[in-house]
Please model this.
Amino acid sequence: MQREEVTVMEEDLRLCTVKAAVDVDRRFCFEVVSPFKCHMLQAESEESYNSWISALQRGIGQALQLSSHENSFTFGNDTPSPLNPPKGPGATTTPGDSNNSSPATTPQASTAHKAQYV
Model:
């Protein structure tokens, strides 16, 4: 089975916004806008378009919430957090745990929903 190549458009989603592309000749286009770049993408269908925009907006919102939560911790605080994982015997995290999330991680889009650079 051939593995698809992964493209990282932006390192930090907290700096980005997602919006519908206007005044373009193509259907189902949307933009991921950062302070430095604007990425225009095109989905294959309206359903895929809506799924991408929703997933990206949720991912940005979650990254902002996680960042805000991390900033509320002070140095020396032993409370487990993404920056201070639990320690000691029996302390584990799994890839799906909220304590093991990266701020730049977005929800995984279904393989049925693909978008490409325009």
